[in-house]
Amino acid sequence: MKQVTIREPVVAGRFYPGSAKTCNSMIAEFSLNDSITKMAVPLGGIVPHAGWVYSGAIAASVFQALKKCAKTEPETIVLFGAVHVPGVREATTSPDEFWKTPLGEIALDQKLAIQLPFPQRKQAHEQEHSIEVQVPLIQTYFPQSKILPIAVPPDIRAIETGKIVAEIVQKLRKNVLWIGSSDLTHYGKSYDFMPKGKGFPALEWVKKENDARIIRLMTDFQTEFIVSEAMNHHNACGSGAITATLSAIRTLDPTANAWLEKYTTSYDVKPDAIPEHFVGYAGILFGRA
Fold this sequence. Notes:
Layout: E1 6-7, H1 20-31, E2 41-47, H2 52-69, E3 76-81, E4 92-93, E5 98-101, E6 104-107, H3 110-113, H4 135-141, E7 146-151, H5 158-172, E8 176-181, E9 186-187, H6 200-219, H7 226-233, H8 239-252, E10 257-265, H9 266-269, E11 278-288
Parallel strand pairs: 1-5, 2-8, 3-7, 3-8
Antiparallel strand pairs: 2-11, 4-7, 5-6, 9-11, 10-11
């Protein structure tokens, strides 16, 4: 008899609460902030993946908007994740049948995964947080949906990755939502990136110029420029995930629209005396108006 394989949570209790009660309480607080974007047909979004205290409200606002606008619950949520672990050099799915969080287990759409021409490697996902931190939010807002986690390295092949997944989803006539996981500019000495020095001028430069530039590329569906933009300006850690998401959505719907739902930085959430080390977070929504 085949043994069921389950991925255990690795950042529960660090990036988000380690108990169901506290997870539910925190998500309930996020849900008090009503989403602002209205869509006739929701298609997906870009969400940040820092600790919930910093970016959870932004991610929740995206899922909340998708939930509010969806006429039916998606069969599967495809999650393109940023890559923070070494050795992931190509788009890679998870071989596990379930992922576990403090809210319980969620099933992976392995029927879809095995249709994809990507390797399945546990090592690509078992220590990666960029998708895991989204899972309790999905369990809350889309409790009947399965997930398909795909780790996507930050290179131009991500365009083809998104296209391939979209074409197979279309062939199988699956009802899915598309989610890309990425934070924006990591600014400060600890990130080896501080071209504007310290202080409020640096913070304003990140908000008004560096992050604004890649947000504009996302909302304009400038898919082919995301990876090079992030490489040259250090304003996304999940450029592959973003690219694959944009590519998948535009493959299925060339007329799709994009909106900036919310934006903030870790400094705005928890300010220090002088802005010195901080990260940008954006929630982007995709759909038809």
